[in-house]
Design goal:
Blueprint: E1 3-4, H1 10-25, H2 36-93, H3 102-105, H4 120-139, H5 150-202, H6 208-216, E2 222-223
Antiparallel strand pairs: 1-2
Helix pairs in contact: 1-2, 1-5, 2-4, 2-5, 4-5
Length: 231
């Protein structure tokens, strides 16, 4: 005996509800297997759920598109900050800059090793430290580092930081809408369950093959267990 299983994707949930609604709208009132109350709920739910799913997809697509530009800014900021630190270290090695000045940048305990800049958070932290450190050293009479100069590093850092903040907004918006979709799924599944229960009850007196076929017309999905044959 085949068994019924609720849809497990959002697209299949929407399809199931629309199939039931369309079937009910194309036959005589007396022959409709779903109550008017359940049909009304199905129409309300599928409209809202489809809008939520479309909104989520649009928001997600916006986030993905923005992330492409963001990754370019991440790459540039990491390259300039890393290069600046290496030039700073070379200047210390050549005694052009005093080693104690590394403390201004937060680099004094790193043994002339470039800090880890792999994560966005590390890039934000070290970018700020490097810019503030160089400005402090210059304000104390130090000779500015060139190639890259701190002005260029600052531009790349600001572009990265602004893009990072924008990406955070996109991610929060996507997560918020996804949460709305997730929370609404239980109501959608409940309506589908009620509709399918009513359909199966309405067609219960028909022979199995005919009953299953009539139920499928309302969108019910049946599966056969392993080794079970279709009669």
């Amino acid at each position: 005996m085949p068994y019924r299983r609720l849809p497990n994707t959002d697209l299949s949930r929407i399809k199931a509800l629309k199939t039931a609604i369309e079937k009910a709208s194309n036959i005589d009132f007396q022959e409709v297997a779903i109550s008017m109350k359940t049909l009304s709920s199905a129409k309300r739910v599928v409209d809202k759920f489809e809008r939520l799913c479309n909104k989520y997809q649009q928001t997600f697509d916006t986030q993905v598109k923005a992330n492409i530009a963001f990754q370019s800014k991440v790459k540039n900021a990491r390259m300039y900050i890393s290069h600046f630190i290496q030039v700073l270290y070379m200047s210390v090695t050549r005694s052009e800059i005093k080693s104690e000045h590394l403390e201004l940048y937060g680099l004094h305990d790193l043994n002339l090793i470039v800090p880890d800049l792999n994560s966005n958070e590390q890039l934000l932290q070290w970018g700020q430290k490097i810019i503030e450190g160089e400005n402090k050293r210059i304000s104390q009479g130090g000779v500015p580092i060139y190639n890259p100069g701190i002005a260029k590093v600052s531009v790349m850092y600001v572009l990265f930081k602004e893009s990072y903040q924008t990406q955070q907004i996109h991610q929060k918006a996507t997560a918020r809408i996804l949460n709305e979709v997730s929370e609404f799924r239980s109501e959608v599944d409940s309506i589908i369950f009620d509709a399918w229960e009513e359909v199966e009850k309405f067609n219960a007196e028909f022979p199995q093959n005919e009953r299953l076929e009539k139920n499928r017309e309302y969108g019910l999905i049946y599966y056969y267990r392993k080794g079970e044959t279709i009669e």
